Amino acid sequence: MHGETSGIQHSLRQKVEHLVAAYEQLQREYGQLQAQYAELQQQLANKEQAYSELNVRYTTLNLAQAIKGSTSDMHDARIKVNRIVREIDKCIALLNK
Description:
By secondary structure, the chain is mostly helical. The chain has one domain (2-96). It is 94% helix and 0% strand. Helix 1 (2-69) packs antiparallel against helix 2 (74-96).
């Protein structure tokens, strides 16, 4: 009977050690995933900043072309500027989501 109890204890100890090792492995993987997530968040922030800067440059270029291309007709220029302002508002709304 003592041998049987000893065998159960040994088996239980092995299972606990296995569970602890599995837990430690999962903890390491979780740490790696957290680091990867932080890196991806930083990349996303960088891409959003680059998008914002390019959007400003694009809008400025469009505005300059609108003013340059219609100096003889101010009405057309105002229409183009209003359209560009609406596009900017849409972009700002999308960035705020």
